[in-house]
Amino acid sequence: MLKQRIAGLLNERRSGFSMPQAFYVDEEIFQADLEAVFASDWLFACSVAEIKRPGDYVTMEIGRDSVVILRDRDGEVKAYFNTCRHRGSRICLHESGRANRLVCPYHQWVYELDGRLINARQMPADFDKSGYSLVPVHVEVICGMVYVSVAENPPSFARFRDTVTPYIAPHQPDRTKVAFSSTIIEEANWKLVIENNRECYHCAGNHPALLVTLVEFALPDHPAANATFKNLMDTSTARWDRLGLPHKPADGGIEFRCIRLPFNEDCVSFTRDGAPACNKLLADFTEPDLGSVRMFRVPNNWNHFLADHIIHFRVLPLGPNRTAVKTTWLVHEDAVEGVDYDIKRLTEVWTETNDEDRILAEHNHQGIQSRAYRPGPFAPSEFMLKNFAEWYYGKMSDYVHGPAHRIA
Ligand code: 3BY
Ligand code: FES
Ligand code: FE
């Protein structure tokens, strides 16, 4: 029944328009999103800087599934379902922490960091622990970014990895530490949070602090771009070419985007005045103005890689009208707080921007709930929303008809 309903909604869709109402507000569709999108693809989980030492872990809720991502004793990043093999209790109860071994709080079954059950008190002597390891979750680490997939057979990640690595690797994310992180809850559907991030049509009217430094144009040859932007682009790309830093828009199809774009003139970082946020630059950079590599990947992540810091954004759906957005700011691992950087200065622009975007997404969600809502047309600068919608409809179509239908 639900699949039939979704098929009907997919037939109703209009290319170049926002989605039919139910995709944004409906409880059943939300459940379908969890299966069709969040249980079938790769999701951004965390930075390796959050789990530096063996036993460091973070947990992440993916619909009904909780996943624990940790660093094992060999220094490898591993992920498991956070569900005990005894009677199924959650094991790690915190968003992050450090554990020598994972001990279930219910009856204290003990798991090694490699997932093996190593102690099950009071169980009979002939109980075979080897059949009760934690259920593994697929993990990929790309330039310090940990992605996980709860799918049985996740899609290939090779093209994404190969394409974005040359842009991001020069920033050496492996040599960073977490300066700050925050999670906000937005009373809006996750797709509205993503759509909001995919366009800067809303920036001029809503992001005064961000627009001190951020250029509104998403492409070097943006149709609305003025002479100042073109000049800025020319001088910046000449400098990046000299430094051997890739900048041209990568071909990520409808799944991901990667590009290096300049900041506004005389600005080098996301601060109030555009001056650096951290005096100790990443990697061995000596040039504070490297613009920013903007990279996003569907369905739940966008990022900025600057000369002086990195910002990761992680989106997780909590309900049809509730979404968690976690922001993590990374600086050079040797940068000293209070000396090289100040947390407020480093984080204030994006903290304000996130809150402005939260309000926009919430009002958007409220407006869409009305009987007056009809899908509306995208502006040319909203081309990434068209890509997102296409990608989402593809996922829903796979869910309804099975992935084989695409091959025909
Ligand atoms: O920079 C970002 O993360 C995106 C690009 C445009 C809107 N948003 C601020
Ligand atoms: Fe984990 Fe019993 S449910 S030890
Ligand atoms: Fe915004």
TrEMBL record:
Domain of life of the native organism: Bacteria
UniProt KW Ribonucleoprotein keyword: no
Co-factor requirement: Fe cation
The keyword NAD is assigned to this record: yes
Pfam families on file: Rieske, Ring_hydroxyl_A
InterPro entries for the chain: ARHD_Rieske_2Fe_2S, Rieske_2Fe-2S, Rieske_2Fe-2S_sf, Ring_hydroxy_dOase_asu_C_dom, Rng_hydr_dOase-A
Signal peptide: none
Single GO molecular function: oxidoreductase activity
Listed name of the protein: Rieske 2Fe-2S family protein
Organism lineage: Bacteria, Pseudomonadati, Pseudomonadota, Alphaproteobacteria, Hyphomicrobiales
